[in-house]
Amino acid sequence: MPRYSIGFDPVRKSNYCHHTFTSSTNLLRCAGCKFARYASKEAQRAAWKNGHQQECAALQACGRIPPATIRLAARIYWKERRLTGDGALPHSIESLQHHWDDLDDDRKQSYAQMAIVTREYMKGSGTSIPDAKDVAYLLARFACNNHTICDDELRPKGVGIFPLGAMLNHSCTPNTMQSFTGSRIVFRAVQHIPAGAEATIAYVELAATRAERRAMLKANYFFDIDANQELCVTLVPKEVRLDDTLTLELFERRSMTMDEHDPELTCVDSDTGSGANVVRVQAEECATFSDEETEAGPSQAPAGQKNWEVKVQCWGAAFLQGGNVQNDPTTQAIAVAWRLATILRLHASASDLVSQGQLEACDMIATALQSMQDMQKHIWRMRLLEVQLRAAIECGNKWDLALDAARSLLPFYTWLYPKVWPNLGLHLATLAKIAALLDHFDEAATHAEAAAAILRITHPEGQIVQDMLRLWHDASAELNANAEE
Ligand SMILES: C[S@@+](CC[C@H](N)C(=O)[O-])C[C@H]1O[C@@H](n2cnc3c(N)ncnc32)[C@H](O)[C@@H]1O
Q: Which end of the chain is more exposed for a tag (fewer CB within 10 A), N or C?
């Protein structure tokens, strides 16, 4: 099955080959477009045959680098024209869902404009140009079917269409994950899958509330995780063990009921067990507040002003547990919403500061976390801690703070991700490294061992597995030496 992939721009200071997607410190630059980079002469020759010949001419004529999706669309046409000679796209691409009829007018318009840009760009190659409508549909297909090609630490390198991989449906409790070996997509089982079961992946970030995941899936993939529907599913022909790579062959139409056991995330503190009803009481409450803080407290934002929209439904409970909620839910909800609006504002400002390398973010996050003492299992506490961890690592001298943030994040990730999942493995690896740096060898050994156990499955060829095994070994040796003293 052919695959189509394109690298992101070099402005991201990437050091990977545009054909094989392997990293190298010694890349050859294309003498024509001066954009594409290759790990070897062989890779360069293969890329040339796979569409770079036309791409190179188009890039030179264009004078700037178009966005990755536009380059990918053009590349597919060039590659397929070479294969079929008539410019028609193969059935494996044509049969991918585009959901055109579900798109609103703005999005249709946006794809139509991108199609015009794609055609303009393709003109520079001297080849014939596909119909604008076909290009717009192809771009719509990308949105529901493409995969972001990432490195082992989940940093994006490029984008690709893998027609067979695009057959996998979404589940919030997936049994499979995708990873990349060079430009190849590989699906690995993250749990035991019996023969005949459906293979599923996660289309969206799993560390999100159910309401957020549902909204993202509706907006981008046009289905509702609450609705049972019949659709084409990908089956696993024979039993797959936990760390096996999947062979996907069978397709069948089945009714989907996969979301029944999807855990619902709320901020309800499971220790107290209270508050669950409050979430229901407030289920439809939604308040919009001005971004400006006023002494009078929350106020409805004037039209046109930047708003924070705060949905009370998924987080009101823990905070409200002490209050007499049944008597006055709306007042209570607005008070909570106001507090959360402040937290969201601090989170957004601190994230901006960290991206710009400014380190006041740590103090800002500390203030926001302080105001969430009574919301221990709240999703926004997790997000604040994530920014705090990034900020503390960026500082380079706040390792105690980084360790505290990483420790506090672990229960969230253990709770939200499947037991074997790359984000969980990578977080354990970060935790192990920080603990080792601060001479907490016991903790470093425990987390490095746990990280290696997960990453061995999710990244079997990754250097990170070797790093974790070495760290585990070294930290254990330090512990033994300390015990003998
Ligand atoms: C990448 S395609 C997956 C393959 C798709 N089932 C097909 O037959 O072409 C993504 C589309 O599949 C459908 N889909 C994927 N997961 C689903 C799910 N859990 N429930 C309902 N529809 C789903 C949605 O229409 C979505 O836009």
A: C
Pocket (CB within 6 angstroms of ligand 1):
97, 99, 144-145, 166-167, 169-170, 221-223, 229, 231-232, 256, 258
CATH number of the domain at 211, please.
Answer: 2.170.270.10
- The reported pLDDT for the residue numbered 372 is 83
Residues 244 and 273 in one domain: no
Give me the number of domains the chain comprises.
3
Q: What is the pLDDT of residue 453?
A: 94
Residues 18 and 47 in one domain: yes
Query: From ligand 1's centre to the CA of 153, what distance in Å?
Result: 27
Residues 92, 174: one domain? no
CB atoms within 10 A of CB 333: 23
Do both 98 and 229 map to the same domain?
A: no
Q: Distance, CA 56 to ligand 1 centroid (Å)? A: 35
Residue nearest to atom 21 of ligand 1 (CA): 223
Q: What is the ipTM of this complex?
A: 0.99
Judge if 11 and 138 occupy the same domain: yes
| Domain shared by 250 and 286, yes or no | no
Phi, psi for residue 386 in degrees, rounded to 5 = -65, -40
Is 80 in the same domain as 179? no
Q: Are residues 210 and 278 in the same domain?
A: no
Q: How many CA atoms lie within 13 A of 51 on its CB side?
A: 20
CA distance 443 to 400: 14
Q: 189 by DSSP, 3-state: which?
A: strand
Ranges in the chain, pLDDT < 70: 1-3, 5-14, 82-87, 242-338
Rounded to whole angstroms, the Cα distance separating 151 from 58 reads 28
Q: Which of 169, 166, 145 is nearest to 220 (CA)?
A: 145
Domain span at residue 65 reads 4-143
User: What's the confidence (pLDDT) of residue 271?
Assistant: 30
Predicted pLDDT at 279:
26
Residue 115 falls inside a structural domain = yes
Distance 144 CA to ligand 1 centre (A): 8
pLDDT at position 229 = 72
The verdict on residue 181 lying in a domain is yes
**Cα-flanking dihedrals φ and ψ of residue 59, to 5°?**
-65, -40
Does residue 62 lie in a domain region? yes
Is 439 part of any domain? no
* pLDDT score for 264: 36
169-170/200-201 β-pairing: parallel
Ligand 1 pocket: which of 170, 175, 214, 262 to mutate (most atoms within 8 A of CB): 170
- Tell me the pTM: 0.82
pLDDT at 136: 96
